[in-house]
């Protein structure tokens, strides 16, 4: 009787959902195709982006600004009316032959997959989750696997996959809106696939079919062992049903017990995925060749939904107190904050308990502190941050602990995935671990919580919060290095079908003028002038952001044009040393959401003498994740944090001193002034 009622209710709900999907499909929003930008406009904007470099060169004894700019203008004209026009026509032809667009189908994904650097720190992003309200007190924190750790892990996985299912069923973000179309497309690329290493250029696996039994599993990593744990059970009519969090908790308990009681140590296969891509490709090919078991295991990992990494060591309080002069975060010590960050990024004790090729991995330590890390190429970091926020926003609600769970982890609901290794594999593991530990040791990585004001106050005085923060980063860079550098900020082109990102070139004539005014040593520049220059810099940055987000940016277009050159063809525009210098992103930056549910975020710097900076602009605070390399020589995360903090303070002081009067600076003065 109960089973009959259950089936009727299930079918009624299923029919309702199918009806909604069909109705929504009939009224689905259609995203426009990413355009090929206008050639003349791209080149004109590119020339404008060179102005601050030429002004700096002239100010330090180089060629005059006028002569240098005139030369670049000649090269630009030669390009537009010569080989550039041919390249533009070829790009249009390529676009017409591309299913989705000229960029994503041909260049952009390949730019990720061709990069040979290790994914560890250099490419993968990381998110540091807030603690759950049920988080134990500091004195209760221990190492070793804990009940609370497994409870939170089960809950986070359940919430994550619940979000995925709701998006697929259009219960969240239906495709009747453009945002819904973008989220549907983007979230689908976070699950059931992986990056696969190959010599010279990696590939992405195909998203596994829902009918594939492997697609119903997550990979749980415990003590470096790989386990496949089923999270979707068979339902009526060949459907699949997401298991309750309590059921997953019981299965995790059995898996952890199996890993903890094994006499032998697992081969550290995970650390191989942290190595440079060619080394990983070579040893993976070897592993697949020595045993069909390894082929099966790798296939199970690739086709699984996602990874769950259960760490044995508690990283909550392992770092010494910081000697920084900055104010301590209000609700947590800086040492605890950074140790949490590092555990998610990876540290020597857990780097082999990861599989870096998966787009989404949840990480939970014995204290229940958690975060996520993922491979960057399938989806941009905003997408996993949306998924992560949904998982974290609702605190753990478990009706039973694993000690009293009625749900059993039956045979077939989990399996240990074995790797067969030989002496060559073990030697590769030892070498990969040594390189991974060196990369981790070289990473100078920390979080900064600026809590004196946030986006609400910035907006209240008439500025874009993102542009304002970018100007503070520019001031901090110049004060700590004494020079300017090309700066990359990510803009999403999500309004277009299969749109990914475009570059916002933060360094401009306007931002340079503001920075020089803020570093005036003899106090000869008034607060009114500084405010006016800030206003102009923010306006310029806002305009650049708008262009980038609406398909009128320049860097992706320049990439496409260069790729259209054929053997023997060249252009002075691209051969110019300043072309490469203007794309040397020693400042690589990106803003996400307000980050209410994250302690911080981060990614690695592109250049060892630069910074990778991710920030969360909340209403009353701004959180920065900053990474550089100790080997960079003249960079330091602690020094840069202090410079950002001081810049944000001083910018507010300037604004508060000015009655926001009309501009007093002419455009000509702005262009030619060295200040």
Automatic annotation (TrEMBL):
Pfam families: Carn_acyltransf. PANTHER family: CARNITINE O-ACYLTRANSFERASE (PTHR22589), CHOLINE_CARNITINE ACYLTRANSFERASE DOMAIN-CONTAINING PROTEIN (PTHR22589:SF107). Signal peptide: none annotated. Belongs to the carnitine/choline acetyltransferase family. InterPro entries: Carn_acyl_trans, CAT-like_dom_sf, Cho/carn_acyl_trans, Cho/carn_acyl_trans_2. It comes from the Eukaryota. This is Carnitine acetyltransferase. Gene3D superfamilies: Chloramphenicol acetyltransferase-like domain (3.30.559.10), Choline/Carnitine o-acyltransferase, domain 2 (3.30.559.70). Keywords: Acyltransferase, Transferase. Residues 34-643 form the Choline/carnitine acyltransferase domain. It comes from Lentinula lateritia.
